[in-house]
Amino acid sequence: MNTSVLEVKQVQKIYGAKGESQSHALKGVTLNIQEGEFVGIMGPSGSGKTTLLNIISTLDRPSEGVIEIAGTDITKMNQNQLADFRSQRLGFIFQDFNLLENLTIYENIALPLSLQGIPSPQIREQVKRVAKTLGIEELLTKYPVQVSGGQKQRAAAARALVHEPAILLADEPTGALDSKNAKSLLAAMSDLNENHHVSILMVTHDAFSASYCQRILFIQDGSLYKEIHRTEDRSSFFKQILDVLAELGASQETD
Amino acid sequence: MLLKLSLSSMRKMLKDYLVLLIGLVISISVFYMFQTLALNSEFTKENSIISSIQLVFNVGAFLLAFITIFYIFYANSFLLSLRRKELGMYRVLGAKRGKISQILFLETLAMGILSLIVGSLVGIGLAGGIGSLLMDQLDISAEGYQPFYTPALLMTGEFFIVLFLITSTVNAVRLARATELDLIRSEQQHDRVKEIGVGTVLAAVFGLALVAVGYYALIHMKELLALGLLVGAVATTVGTYLLFIALLPAFMKLLKQNQKLNDQKLNAFTLAQLHFRVNNLTKVLATVAMLIALGVGAMAGGLAFQNNVALIANVARVYDVTLQDPALEDSEALKTMAVEEQLTYRYKIDDNAISYVKEDLLAHPPLISSNSMTEYRRDSQPIRVSAQLPAGISSTSGKDSEPIPEQWEQAIRNEFISSYSMLGDRQIQIVDQSTFAAMKGDEHTLLLAKVDDFLKYKPQLKAMQQRQIGLLSSSEEDGTLMTKYGMYESLYAFTSGTMFMGFFLGIAFLAMMASCLMFKILSGATRDRGRYQMLRKIGVRKSWLVGSIYKELFLVFIFPALMGLLHVWVGMKMFSVILLEPYVQLWIPTLIFALIYAVYYGITVQLYRGIVLSKEA
User: Fold this and answer.
1) What is the CATH number of the domain that holds A49?
2) Which residues of A touch B617 (CB under 8 A)?
3) Closest among A32, A90, A59 to A224, alpha carbons compared
């Protein structure tokens, strides 16, 4: 039986104070991610996908609605609880890697574990294991500036996974990579999902990246527009995604 | 149009500009304060015990100018770092290179002139404030010192206008030479950490050796004299720089290699930040250490001169009170003091001799000092005269009499006599009771008293002194007595000018040094912003980040402080050439330093925190 790892219920986000000109970034979004799923969120610029990810990441608060991650309601937590929650239950991959360039790859990956006060020998073991999974065990003593973009993103993925989070949140992870590195990262993410049962939520505007997901939610103007499931192989899923995107584009034209 | 844009963005960054402005104002006001002392040669000549004090001031003025130049450059690169991105964006949008550089030139110059005006005013205020504070608190007179001094004002104005013109040009040129991409990506530059090689190890060893040589020279100043001063100053300075350049990065690397320490909480990040900072700040930290040494040293030196006055008075005389023919008021005053020993002797005085009674002396022999200026020992106690007196008359003339034993002569000359005119050309005689009774002239009384703490009773002693001077005949009256208080008072007036200058300079140096460090740290802060934001995103509590900032900056601040204080603690030894106890009350300047430094540390942390940790909802 599958259990829910993320539940978003009727989430709204309104920017601007009452009485002033307000903008509704999210207009009541509801979605659900099961454990072990690899879900993509797509949508044009300004559709609200980054806002949604920020809210799920606990970096921003919703104006209305409830978000539960692994059974915990994050909308009721204070700043410190949120920080702890992020460091213990969430893993992040950002478009621009966000590695600390004054720390070695090893230290970057070890950071989430150090924050939890895990003893040094155990940290070493876990870092080595996750580095091996992502194929970067040779790079651990190097600094981020000494490795390629793809390797940096793998290091970032390793940092996101080292503490075994409930869910991995990826924000345009291939955005700054060339196609070869992008492919290899996506393959690695699929592998994590399929063989290591990591739940992944990925925001992207790139159809090719999205084709690696099992399910894709399309957002437009702050609401869910459509949801598609991968049933056959990746290339036909890719075509399916392009179709929906074309549909989306057409609907915008007619506005 | 561009000017308007740039003004509005300056308004937005008001807080950062305020930091810059405060820094410049501090530097200008300190420079002005120094000039009020350095240029006022009437004051320095009259108030110092070292005739070559003007030389010290010239060296000091040079040093301060040198540091100020550095400081202004740091401050201006801070200004440039604030504006780079925005000005780069204007250029991307098509604004002309020359126009943009011109804006920055004008902006830098305008900042400079504004801070010059404010700084001069603050300087005048500070000079007046610190001047009167020092005079009140330290009980010293600084007659002739003028807080508002036109030559100093002119000097400050000229110096800084030239400096601002240069830095404005440098800023404009630096901006013009950078490409558009350099400018808008300025925050993404990476910090590289240098590897440690054989050269570094050699430099560290050489640095240690030089500091050791410098310390040896300072400690053995008595034998080495001028050579020692030169060797001590040069070797210590060069050694300090080498140590900071070589040893400190190595030390940081060592800390970072400790896996266990590194894996704890945010330590990896804190140490990495520190490692990089220490690598970038080596020369600044060495400069700060030297400035701390100079600043605390100036205060400690001034204070030591002042404190040694009481010691010198104590070495010269055992008895705190020496009264010839004490009046009723004197015995009243004595009752208010904790008198440990009180002796009275009779004497008669005529044109040829002062005569004391043998039986009086033998019944209550006085104490004499066993210390001397040349062979001073802190723990040596006064000794009681134990020598026998000859059967008949003894005198210093040696005619028709036995000589006075040495101990007794020392007692009479150093403890009994109140003034040079009292003894004059007279000889000292010790006679027996019957001879004394047969002598012509009035019988006088001498009262000696020793109290628990001489410095506790300054007002009473001053009143006694005035009454004693009143007793002297007008022809003898020159206003000074050889009593302990008389000596203390005249030496005190003499050294207070030196002390005033020491404290004044010390505080000026310290204020300068700390703001130097503060600026260097803050000017790099914008580049750290991204790191803190990223850590916040992956779930580091804000309190931990703040803690990391406190820890990191504390270590940055503590290294130069320790080195500088060590220099002072060793360096004070050199004053043993002219002072009895150079180390007396060294804790006062150390404490003043710690306070000033701690305040700067706190301010730096708050400002840095404001830059790297943005407010959250």
Assistant:
1) 3.40.50.300
2) 60-61
3) A32
